[in-house]
Write a structure and sequence with these properties.
Layout lengths: L3 H10 L21 H9 L1 E11 L4 E14 L2 E10 L6 E5 L8 E10 L8 H11 L1 E14 L7 E7 L5 E6 L5 H5 L1 H9 L6 E9 L2 E9 L7
Antiparallel strand pairs: 1-2, 1-4, 1-10, 2-3, 3-5, 5-6, 6-7, 6-8, 8-9, 9-10
Helix pairs in contact: 1-2, 2-3
Length: 226
């Protein structure tokens, strides 16, 4: 189990509410952590995006696209495994939402690590700066994403193999009033009613072989980090 203290420090650094913070009594000073590890703890969790899908018979379904981000190994917290689950439903013609006109079925696994210098003595300071600047970038160490047409789930439109360190997955906090915030508003308000401040994060991958990835995710409260 991951140490609770580093997680609380990250929450405090971001100015996020955490009632448990005041209740924690440190028996010893927390170990220093580099920026890669702090960033990994921050992004870890399950995130989802609402999608509206039209079936071939005209029926409309309200579904979600999800990604789960976890440490790739228990002894290497700073290296993450991001699993994209795509959209699972039979006889779908197309999917979309208010922020994206078309959402294909995107699935696969990427291995990530925060890009840039990483020093234990400056870890929290560097991470604060990243968040203040508006984005946190993770180098894609390796992995594959497949894009399928929903109308023909057996046909893979594109398969992207990522080479080490050539591309980044960039995360940006979604600001209130933006298209992404409006898309996630219902889930965000529902979380606030439960006393939760759910993270809203835009994920982007720069263009790779005519493929570009964008998504507007919100933290899933049922799979929220403790």
């Amino acid at each position: 189990m991951l140490n609770l203290v580093p997680k609380l420090l990250v929450l405090a650094a971001l100015g996020l509410p955490c009632a448990a913070l005041a209740q924690v009594q440190l028996e010893r000073p927390p170990a220093l952590e580099d920026t890669a590890t702090i960033a990994a703890r921050w992004i870890e969790g399950r995130f989802r995006m609402p999608v509206t899908c039209l079936k071939k018979d005209g029926t409309r379904l309200e579904l979600e696209e999800a990604v789960v981000i976890r440490p790739s190994r228990t002894d290497e917290v700073s290296v993450l495994r991001a699993t994209f689950f795509g959209i699972d439903a039979p006889d779908i013609e197309r999917c979309y939402n208010t922020a994206m006109q078309e959402i294909p079925d995107r699935r696969g696994t990427l291995y990530l690590k925060r890009r840039g210098m990483s020093r234990e003595d400056l870890g929290l300071t560097d991470f604060r700066r990243d968040v203040r600047d508006g984005e946190v970038s993770f180098a894609i160490e390796r992995g594959t994403l497949s894009v399928r047409d929903l109308a023909d789930p057996n046909a893979v439109r594109q398969r992207i193999e990522f080479k080490p360190g050539k591309h980044d997955l960039v995360t940006r906090q979604i600001l209130s009033g933006s298209d992404g915030a409006k898309l996630l508003e219902d889930w965000y308000v529902e979380g606030r009613k439960q006393g939760l401040r759910l993270r809203r994060i835009k994920f982007s991958i720069d263009e790779v072989d005519a493929f570009q990835f964008n998504a507007y995710y919100i933290e899933d409260p049922k799979r929220r980090k403790q």
